């Protein structure tokens, strides 16, 4: 259910409503391409911050058994920033910039601790199904809220809202805060905090920061021990760059091309509902052919979408691309998450998912940065679309060298050497 809660921020703030609002309202005093560039810069900034903090906070959560407490802290930050977006008016680019950065730091930070719980709630033969089911529920949650938002943005009079006003969009940001807060309750009440355990070389009563830094150092030095998980991280770093670029920049790119706000949001809504059965289908497919071949299928479809995106001209093209992306978006990301989870020691899941977040966020840095550079050099985003294909090709080649069975054996051996206690 936390996928359901968090999807509101991802769908409304990262993908659909806020990027359009940022370009057309907060950035109204700038040319559209410059406003898009400012959004790409904001994305780069929050990604750098979370990339630096995630492994350290993840390791602290492992050592102190505070995954849920830190998840709550990040949620409070994200919810507060989302609610604050109600105050953004025409030309308030600086306010919009920093509230977006804060909301996304909250969302990304919460994701680290949320995903680190996966190995503790799903056994090895369940992890693909549970992960894809989470993504499917996320699509439902994000889709339902986005449908409501689209209704009052497109037909404000039906809800007693003024026409030609920013109020409907600003209420959408407040609805994200409310949705996110309410649906965080199930994970806080229903999922137990995994108990703290010590590694064999850790003394009882050793300071938290000393233990945290020692574990981080050991993990960095011993990625050879967890070679398959490390190789998976590297492959994920590359191909996820392409995925994150498409997610983050799609509506800003469409706005730059002159596609209307209603058409853009409707297309994102289509992605949500197409993604529900397809995410479940990817979980079934992984059970039949394995997670890695199913991820390859997703990368092929993304490559085709990138080629078609170069030729996109109107709302119809955008909608067709949205359907194509919706077929594979949730499944590809969910199986990447579950494949990695199956190859990391459960007792160090916070730390490892902190590194996973680092690689995921650094992946998200290069794509938006590429957009910003391409816009600066050419005045248009179109020329950067085809370059995204390189991320899928190189990441796919690296993924071919990952041995999931060997990775699971490495993780199980590490967990077998644990010492119970504080």
Per CATH, which architecture? Up-down Bundle
Structural class: mainly alpha
Main sheet: strand order: 1-2
Distance between the termini: 30 Å
Helix tally equals 17
User: How do the helices and strands follow one another from N- to C-terminus?
Assistant: HHHHHHHHHEHHHHHHHHE
CATH superfamily: MFS general substrate transporter like domains
Uncertain stretches: none
Rg of Cα set? 21 Å
Indicate the mean pLDDT.
82
- What gross morphology would you assign? globular
Q: According to CATH, what is the topology?
A: Growth Hormone, Chain: A
Major sheet description: 2 strands, antiparallel
Output the CATH class name.
Answer: Mainly Alpha
Report the helical percentage: over 70%
Strand element count = 2
The amount of beta strand, in percent, is: under 5%
Could you characterize what this model shows?
With 422 residues, the protein is mainly α. The protein has one domain: MFS general substrate transporter like domains (Growth Hormone, Chain: A, Up-down Bundle). 77% of the residues lie in helices and 1% in strands. Strands 1-2 form a two-stranded antiparallel ribbon. Helix 1 packs antiparallel against helix 5 and helix 12 runs antiparallel to helix 13.
């Amino acid at each position: 259910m936390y996928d359901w809660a968090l999807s509101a921020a991802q769908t409304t703030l990262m993908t659909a409503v806020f990027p359009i609002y940022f370009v057309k309202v907060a950035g109204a005093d700038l040319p559209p391409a410059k406003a898009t560039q400012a959004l790409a810069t904001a994305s780069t900034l929050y990604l750098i911050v979370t990339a630096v903090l995630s492994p350290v906070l993840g390791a602290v959560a492992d050592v102190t058994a505070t995954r849920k407490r830190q998840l709550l802290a990040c949620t409070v930050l994200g919810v507060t920033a989302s609610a604050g977006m109600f105050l953004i008016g025409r030309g308030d680019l600086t306010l919009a910039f920093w509230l977006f950065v804060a909301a996304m730091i909250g969302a990304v930070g919460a994701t680290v601790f949320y995903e680190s719980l996966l190995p503790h709630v799903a056994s090895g033969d369940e992890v693909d199904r549970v992960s894809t089911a989470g993504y499917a529920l996320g699509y439902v949650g994000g889709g339902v809220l986005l449908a409501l938002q689209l209704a009052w943005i497109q037909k404000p009079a039906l809800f007693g809202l003024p026409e030609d006003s920013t109020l409907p969009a600003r209420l959408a940001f407040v609805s994200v805060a409310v949705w996110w807060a309410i649906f965080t309750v199930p994970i806080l009440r229903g999922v137990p905090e995994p108990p703290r355990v010590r590694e064999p070389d850790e003394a009882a009563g050793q300071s938290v920061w000393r233990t945290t830094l020692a574990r981080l150092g050991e993990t960095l030095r011993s990625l050879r021990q967890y070679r398959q998980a490390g190789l998976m991280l590297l492959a994920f770093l590359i191909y996820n760059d392409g995925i994150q670029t498409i997610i983050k920049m799609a509506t800003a790119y469409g706005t730059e091309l002159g596609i209307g706000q209603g058409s853009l949001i409707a297309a994102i809504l289509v992605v949500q509902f197409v993604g529900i059965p397809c995410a479940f289908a990817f979980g079934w497919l992984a059970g039949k052919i394995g997670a890695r071949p199913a991820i390859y299928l997703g990368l092929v479809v993304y490559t085709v979408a990138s080629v078609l995106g170069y030729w996109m001209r109107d709302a119809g093209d955008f909608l067709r691309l949205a359907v194509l992306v919706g077929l594979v978006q949730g499944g590809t990301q969910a199986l990447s998450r579950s494949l990695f989870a199956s190859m990391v020691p459960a007792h160090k899941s916070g730390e490892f998912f902190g590194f996973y977040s680092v690689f995921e966020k650094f992946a998200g840095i290069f794509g938006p940065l590429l957009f910003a550079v391409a816009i600066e050099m050419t005045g248009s985003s179109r020329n950067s679309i085809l370059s995204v294909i390189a991320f899928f090709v190189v990441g796919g080649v690296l993924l071919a060298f990952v041995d999931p069975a060997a990775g699971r054996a490495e993780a199980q051996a590490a967990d077998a050497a644990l010492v119970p206690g504080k």
